[in-house]
Amino acid sequence: MMAQGFFAFIRALWTGHFKDSNENITEEKTGFSSSWGQAIEVQAGWMPQDLTVLDRWISKKVQQLDEKNEPFVEVIQKFQKFIESDTSILTLFQQMFTQVPTLAPYDRDTWGKPSVRDYMTMLRLFNSILTEPPEFTTKHASVAFPINAILSWPMGTPAGRAAFYLPSVNEHFRNILNARGEFLSSPESAVVLSDGPGGWLSQDALQAMGGFNDDFIHDVTQPHWGFKSWDDFFTRRFREGRRPVPTPYDSRIVVNPCEAGVYNVSRNVLEHDLFWLKENTYSLADMLDNHPFVPLFAGGTVYQGWLSALSYHRWHAPVSGTVVDIDFVPGTYYSPSPIVGMSSLALRNSQGYLTAVATRVNIYFQSDNPNIGLMCFMAVGMAEVSSCEVTVKKGDLVVQGQEIGMFHFGGSTSCLIFRPETNIQFKDVVQVGNMIKLNESIAFVNA
After folding, report:
1. Long-range contacts: 199-206, Cβ < 8 Å, 24+?
2. Which of 1, 158, 273, 418 could connect to 283 by a Cys-Cys bridge, CB 3.0–4.6 Å?
3. All residues at 6 or more sequence positions from 351 whose CB lies less than 8 Å from its CB, including other chains
4. Which residue has the higher pLDDT, 434 or 142?
5. How far is Cα 51 from Cα 141, in angstroms, rounded to an integer?
6. What pTM did the predictor assign?
């Protein structure tokens, strides 16, 4: 990010669209229609559609803290020491809670108790969920991102926006998420893979996921249907033939790299742009972390899709060709766009912004079709999605539809980026909000 733009960005983090805590505050609009915002929330399953569900979940967790009073594990102890050893960091973590308004809906939850109002309660909640796998409740009421739920209000304050953009803060979040990831990859986490209440193999859960028995590899005769851990279940594979490439010999076609809904299509994308001032504005230099290929994509096209927490989380090659580079970009985990304001759905409404700041990996392909040429697939780690795993390496030859990597532990977002010389034409199915299956044709090129 250029120096002038960086300082403008920092000012936006501090000022944003936040009002004084005693004013009557409503959730900021981001350019989405209300129906589109609801469509993502309903289908993605990242956070409860009903705020009262979120309130009750937090209330229950706070009540359990008082009952258990568990000591902090090492990763939380280190985070506490980090916060309290630096006055500037401590001030941010104090202010991000004091800046939360004292009026409804921020003042009290549905049980009539104060919401989370200090960083020590935040740390205690983090500590409690490190060894708790997410339970299924209903399709639109499961808290798939518990840390995001705890931070819903404070991360939208000026202090929260500033704190969660700092690399030093994100380093500690990475350590916390990795610790949680270790548990979610352990056999102990499979306790929620059952057909009982809260189980992900219950009839309600299977109905919410839709087509599970026909679509995914599993063995009902084995404990937990053969899944070794929560993450093993989360990264489940499709059965052979369930998502075939429709025209494997037509190199003009680009297929959907993920089982995902359409978020946005943007053409004539600039190399540098003020991505933090307008939603759905992309800045290629920031997205691609100033990679040498950036100038080649300036003026090109970005296609962005979002993944459901209830669906499939592996990525597949959009074209046949050669992997020419793989670039892991460290970034933020809980930094919402400054224009979103106070919103329980802040990260959901920040997906364009997250392509420039969040932890992500960019995989560059040289397509076998010269009319497509160089293109990029971007996988963005959002909130609890702390791990983007790539299963190919530089120099590999890939076939369209071949697996190239996966997200762990949560839903997220991804992009395809094309050069301006690529005359990419999107099919009619590419409409904002439409859910599109993996490997379905989404675009084609003309000579």
Report:
1. 199/135, 199/136, 200/136, 200/233, 201/225, 202/136, 204/136, 204/138, 204/139, 205/136
2. 273
3. 263, 264, 304, 306, 380, 382, 413
4. 434
5. 9
6. 0.85
Most confidently predicted of 132-146, 184-198, 405-419: 184-198
Enumerate residues 6+ apart whose C-beta is below 8 A from 316.
Answer: 255, 257, 258, 401, 402, 403, 404, 438, 439
**pLDDT band at residue 76 under the 50/70/90 scheme:** very high
* Residue 319 scores a pLDDT above 90: yes
How do beta strands 374-380 and 413-418 pair? Answer: antiparallel
Both structure tokens of 260: 């995902």
- What are 117's two structure tokens? 């109002």
Residues 6+ apart with CB under 8 A from 130: 73, 75, 76, 176, 179, 180, 183
Q: Which of 281, 301, 357, 303 lies closest to 31 in space, CA to CA?
A: 281
Which secondary-structure segment (H or E) carries 365? strand 360-367
Closest by Cα among 188, 176, 187, 219 to 201: 219
Determine if the peptide bond prior to 154 is cis (ω within 30°): no
Work out the angle at residue 419's Cα, subtended by the Cα atoms of residues 418 and 420, and round it to the nearest 5 degrees: 120
Phi, psi of 379 (to 5 degrees): -110, 125
